[in-house]
Design goal:
Blueprint: H1 6-15, H2 17-22, E1 23-26, H3 34-44, H4 50-63, H5 87-94, H6 103-113, E2 117-121, E3 134-137, E4 140-142, E5 150-155, E6 166-172, H7 180-183, H8 210-221, H9 227-244
Parallel strand pairs: 2-5
Antiparallel strand pairs: 1-6, 2-3, 3-4, 5-6
Helix pairs in contact: 3-4, 4-6, 4-9, 8-9
Length: about 240
């Protein structure tokens, strides 16, 4: 059975016991790829496809650049009070294996997969709602929590860290509806207080992401090229990746 993340569990216990009784925060490896690992775990029942999900996030950033460029009128975060880097640094950052995901990456991956992603972050002590808690679908968002979406939680890699620096996936404890790939796991996750720490070997990847690493390097070589050239490369790479996986 997949293990619960003890830090995320404790944060939910402190901030939202109702949500903790409804959802199980599942462990993901804290290597900078945790957001993509969480989504991979939710969609495919394994963390190993994180590189593929990072890759299609990069492609989304390239193919729909005006939505992710803070200087553009169509920027997806223009009405959301969070900081975001300029477009080119954002793209370079996203192409780097192990680079941490920000809110804008949730928008990009939701759009690339064409699925809603529920973002949840425990509220601050002086607030009833954290600005990162929202339902995202493509370039649209609403400050709400919807149970029918793939749900990722902003948490911390260790208990002593105050600001979020890690993602886990929240899995419904009782499966009336939900993500089919995780529905085959234990239908009910117990509420024991003595949750065992994650086995570091349990999330070890095999080499299934090697093709994505090669493509990352390929795209990096062309990152300084014109947008038209980069879009052309990305379209063809995306087609080849879909055929090879």
């Amino acid at each position: 059975m997949l293990q619960e993340d003890p830090v995320a569990r404790q944060r939910l216990k402190n901030a939202n016991t109702t949500l903790l009784h409804q959802y199980s925060p599942r462990c993901t490896e804290s290597d900078g790829n945790c957001f993509y690992r969480a989504v991979s775990l939710a969609l495919y029942g394994t963390q190993q496809w994180h590189a593929y999900l990072r890759l299609i996030t990069c492609m989304e950033l390239v193919l729909r650049a005006p939505y992710y460029d803070p200087s553009a009128s169509s920027f997806v975060l223009q009405n959301i009070p969070v900081m975001s880097p300029a477009y080119r640094p954002l793209l370079r950052h996203t192409l780097r294996n192990g680079a941490y995901a920000e809110l804008i990456h949730l928008f990009a991956l939701s759009s690339a997969l064409d699925i809603p992603i529920q973002s949840y972050c425990c509220p601050d002590t002086d607030s009833a709602h954290h600005p990162y808690t929202m339902r995202i679908h493509g370039d649209k968002s609403s400050p709400s929590f919807t149970a029918d979406s793939l749900t990722v939680m902003w948490t911390a890699s260790i208990a002593s860290v105050a600001e979020p620096d890690h993602f886990v996936v929240l899995v419904p404890r009782r499966w009336s509806t939900g993500i089919p790939s995780l529905a085959t796991d234990s239908a009910a996750v117990p509420m024991e207080d003595d949750v065992q720490p994650m086995d570091e070997q349990s999330t070890a990847d095999d080499d299934t992401g090697a093709v994505c690493v090669i493509i990352f390097n390929f795209l990096h070589n062309y990152i300084q090229q014109t947008d038209v050239r980069l879009r052309y490369i990305t379209l063809h790479v995306h087609d080849r990746v879909k055929k090879s996986l």
